[in-house]
Amino acid sequence: MKKIILFATMFLALITVTLFAQDVTTVEAKDSDISDNLDLEAVASVFGESKDLEEFEKKLNDPELKLTNLDLNEDGEVDYLRVVETSDKDAHVVAIQAVIGKDQYQDVATIDVVKDDKGETQVQVVGDVYMYGPNYIVQPVYVHPPIIFTFFWGPLYHPWRSPFYWGYYPHYYHPWHPYPPYTYRRNVNVHINVNNTYRNTNVRINKNTVNLQKNVSRNDFAKSHPDKSFQKRNKGASNKHALDKNRVNKRGGSKAKTGNKNGKARPATNGTNKPAAKPANKKATTKTAKPAKKPSSSVKHTSKPAARKQVSTPARKPASRPASRPAKQPVKRGGRR
Question: Model confidence over 243-255: pLDDT tens digits?
Fold first, then answer.
């Protein structure tokens, strides 16, 4: 009898674990997409903070930053992203390609850098059709002109083509295991400069960039996996922008006030790219005894951060007391000096 009860208990436990695993797999399939593993706003932000394309490629693959979470070949490691560029007159196209095998590459996005009729430089990050659907374009407006612009229009310009390939990577690169997409989305927000503006558009500024892109385009993964295209993965959504909008509508959520200027939710920051610290608990602060007022000399010279740089002259020292008879401050109970 005991054996029967034990067998029945083990059987029920096995069924419970199996059903739970199936439920988790189903939820993940509905809530995630390949396009969730490379945030193009983060790409646009880091592009504007790089001095040239070599540094840009390094940041894309930096194991510390972890800007990408793509594992297209499903080998358990995030794919290396190489950068290849081509240009013609006032238009440059920077292709970002995942290295997925020996002499196998897949376009994930391109960056158009063009001069408009007024001579001003504009940037568009265009998601690959296979990855993000057609006409998914993020157009950043930088709060300050990026240094990388001088790379494209300066006298020392030369086209950049990544020297790395399958099995041959830079010394700083160490592959890491991909995170769940929801974890990646949360972590990558820190690398998006919310002082910039990120607009979604469906029109490329310069039509010549489409032809330039064909010169460097590689779609080896798309050719061998036509069933995994964006349209096949997400029926009813025209592109990544529409997919995200549908998700918000289905969940009944609203756009956060701390988002960037195009309405996309981003964490509040303290002036840098890192999230601002949470305010202290109000209840705790109201009950805390106020510290005794410090001497005026101490307050005067500690109001500025110590890390601030001084210009050639040393920092001004607070007035010192006579060495022979140092003044003593009375100590009150329950308070500070």
Answer: 999 988 877 754 4
